[in-house]
Design brief:
Layout (H helix, E strand, L loop, with lengths): L3 H6 L6 H31 L3 H28 L2 H24 L5 H30 L4 H29 L2 H21 L17 H10 L2 H16 L3 H12 L6 H22 L6 H19 L4 H28 L6 H14 L1 H14 L2 H36 L1
Helix pairs in contact: 2-5, 2-6, 2-7, 3-5, 3-10, 3-14, 3-15, 4-5, 4-7, 5-14, 6-7, 6-11, 6-13, 9-13, 9-14, 9-16, 10-11, 10-16, 11-13, 12-13, 12-16, 15-16
């Protein structure tokens, strides 16, 4: 048992192409989190406004909300690796440009908004391409494991990036975080170049036809597991995953810490928990709707604990299980969608996942920002936690109804 456990947990890493991708993404995601921390801290320095933090986060995700299905359709029509060459290079150039603006003293809130919006356009194609590319690297049998390990690396970056960002901001300044992120994309591009194209499991592309977006939406609505999973991700993504808005304000306004240290530690604690959560999910051979309910419940409960923590240290401790359950929830939802959708619909389904998770931020981030402005940062966290718990109850009720319907149909047949 002790030998099979670790082997099952890291099964996808036996695939060379995925190993290259894993290492490249670990470097890049660490840089991305450095930029995220630096951008939030930069806006606090420029304005000190919760609303401005929410607007910047919203602008970065608005393209996904408005045009996410179109981005997924383009991914369904094109080779995923080629798309990633373009999107990863563009992301690096945008980080470099913002670093230069800061270094030369020309940065303004308006420029931060513009760069966030441009990065959102890049992510419109990058997100569904990366999600679908995972299965091309490892094949269907290992996709659930690979998705979980991918979540682990994303949150290893969350653990590394904020910690390094706190040091960079203190010693070098915010511009250093943007330069580091720009350089980090070289690792991803090198990994893509070094991959063995003959070892891929290419997904079937679709030819251009009229009505493909409508067919994708109808396909999801007519497939209960896809529909229910996406609705759950949409609610949680809208109201709970606004940590770049809530956490800096929790540190700044609630705990009265004017340095970036505890903000980095809060994100780092969440990242540490997320690594454990991702590894735990990676050990499972197949995700289930019941597991999704359990994980949403845990996420909501520990996020509630974090929102009412009396000290910053207790908040940091609460963020460890919060991170574990949050990433386990998103990894399980991602794998459920990939395993229950056809190859020809994969890009569109994963684009809808992107809309539900990231594209709802233009709605959720300003709302949470206004709630915090009207009340306090604790309430911003608690609202997300409460709605996550309600989502878990809704999933459970719907799952029971579906089970009863299936049992009745079995009896009647």
């Amino acid at each position: 048992m002790s030998r099979r456990g670790p082997s099952r947990t890291f099964a996808a890493l036996r695939v060379r192409n995925f190993r290259l991708y894993f290492v490249g993404q670990l470097v890049s995601v660490s840089g991305t989190w450095m930029q995220s921390v630096a951008q939030g801290w930069l806006l606090l320095q420029l304005t000190g406004s919760a609303v401005d933090l929410g607007i910047a986060l919203a602008l970065g995700n608005l393209p996904m909300l408005l045009f996410g299905s179109y981005g997924g359709l383009i991914v369904d029509r094109r080779a995923k690796r080629r798309i990633l060459y373009v999107t990863q290079s563009s992301s690096g150039l945008l980080a470099l440009a913002l670093g230069i603006l800061i270094s030369t003293g020309h940065v303004t809130v308006g420029w931060v908004y513009v760069m966030a919006g441009l990065l959102g356009i890049v992510n419109l194609f990058d997100m569904p391409a990366r999600q679908a590319f995972v299965q091309e690297m490892v094949g269907r049998d290992l996709v659930a494991n690979a998705v979980s390990l991918n979540s682990v690396l994303m949150n290893a970056g969350r653990l590394i990036g904020p910690s390094v960002a706190a040091v960079f901001i203190t010693v070098i300044g915010t511009a250093g975080c943007f330069y580091a992120n720009a350089i980090s994309y070289v690792a991803v591009l090198a990994a893509l170049i070094l991959m063995d194209g003959t070892a891929f499991h290419p997904l079937r592309t679709v030819a251009r036809e009229r009505g493909q977006l409508r067919r994708g939406l109808r396909y999801v609505l007519e497939t209960p597991v896809l529909r229910d999973t996406l609705l759950a991700v949409a609610v949680v993504g809208t109201f709970a995953f606004n940590f770049t808005v809530t956490l800096p304000l929790l540190v700044h306004a609630t705990f009265h810490d004017r340095s970036a240290v505890h903000y980095g530690l809060l994100l780092g604690a969440m990242g540490l928990g997320a690594i454990f959560g991702g590894l735990g999910v990676a050990r499972r051979s197949r995700p289930t709707p019941t597991l999704l309910v359990v994980l949403a419940t845990g996420f909501g409960l520990f996020m509630t604990a974090a929102s009412f923590a009396p000290t910053v240290l207790l908040a940091e401790l609460a963020m460890v299980p919060t991170g574990a359950f949050s990433i386990a929830f998103m990894s399980t939802a991602n794998a459920l969608l990939q395993l229950n959708s056809t190859q020809s619909m994969r890009g569109r389904v994963m684009a809808l996942y992107g809309i539900a998770f990231m594209g709802t931020t233009p709605i959720g981030a300003p709302l949470i920002g206004y709630i915090i402005a009207a009340t306090n940062p604790r309430m911003g966290l608690f609202v997300g936690a409460a709605l996550t718990l309600l989502t878990a109850l809704g999933l459970l009720a719907n799952h029971r109804v579906s089970a009863r319907r299936a049992a009745l149909e079995a009896v009647l047949s």
